[in-house]
Design goal:
By secondary structure, the chain is an alpha/beta fold. The chain is 34% helix and 22% strand. β12 and β13 form a beta hairpin. It starts with a strand and ends with a strand.
């Protein structure tokens, strides 16, 4: 799929050899040889696109349908909340600036009913503090306009994989264990000492990266590259933020497992 950036943050797309949108039905493989993502019931992944710019929303919807996903769109915050309640999406693409309420307010309402759904913010704001605000509010990733459709699709694929709402066909069962902490990569269940721990999609991916490398110090740059798949504007504050989230859920009232090596990074090891 090729894209060109249009004025005012819009993007145009022209999939090779195609001038129409792909049907929302399932195919055996995703475009460009990628393994298709499916819901556990083997139906297409569902994505809700929320943007008040109708041409942009349609372009995004077309690109996502080309992936074989089922897409629904909304042009304002109230419509997004109603659509999410009915559609029950596996991921949401959410514009920060909407005519009736801002995207952060919409996110708050979505989280009350769909606490686990991953959210990718779209915005014209590119200041680091705006990105941090979006992630702190509960967003899982952030793309600034103008953007390429390939980037949005790639980010969504990563979020959906991490959330556990969709599985690749060849995925095999895998359980990670460090001390009394257990992480199931198939069910996305986490427990410590037998007590269930609820994590967001990003928190889960961060913990998984740590648990795949027990007793190994991982730098902030390594974590940014692995968990967020890109350099977050050179800012490592987001890593510190999510490490603190994990500590509150994993270590609160227990022997600490997540440790800081000043000037080097973070590691996880069994509580002693």
């Amino acid at each position: 799929m090729t894209t060109t950036t249009a004025p005012q943050g819009r993007t145009d797309t022209a999939p090779p050899g195609r001038t129409d949108t792909a049907p929302p039905g399932r195919t055996d493989t995703a475009p460009q040889g990628r393994t298709e993502l499916l819901r556990p019931d083997r139906t297409p992944v569902r994505v809700l696109v929320v943007d008040d710019e109708a041409p942009l929303a349609e372009l995004l919807s077309m690109a996502l349908r080309y992936e074989g996903w089922e897409v629904r769109s909304a042009g304002d915050g109230a419509g997004a909340v109603r659509a999410a309640r009915d559609f029950r999406p596996d991921a949401v693409v959410l514009d920060v600036m909407l005519p009736d309420m801002d995207g952060l307010s919409v996110l708050g309402r979505l989280r009350r009913e769909h606490s686990d759904v991953p959210v990718l913010f779209l915005t014209a704001r590119d200041a680091v503090e705006d990105r941090i605000a979006g992630l702190t509010a509960g967003g899982d990733d952030y793309v600034t306009k103008p953007f390429s459709l390939e980037e949005v699709v790639a980010r969504l694929r990563g979020l959906i994989r991490r959330s556990g709402t969709a599985l690749a066909a060849e995925r095999s069962q895998s359980t990670l264990t460090v001390g009394d902490l257990v992480l199931d990569e198939d069910s996305h269940e986490v427990s410590r000492g037998g007590d269930a721990i609820h994590l967001t999609a990003t928190e889960f991916e961060l913990l998984r990266f740590l648990m795949r490398n027990p007793r190994r110090v991982l730098s902030k740059a390594q974590i940014l590259d692995r968990v967020w798949n890109y350099d977050f504007g050179g800012q490592a504050n987001v890593v510190e933020l999510y490490i603190s989230y994990l500590r509150k859920k994993i270590d609160a009232g227990r022997t600490p497992m997540i440790h800081t090596r000043r000037g080097a990074g973070y590691l996880i090891k069994p509580g002693e």
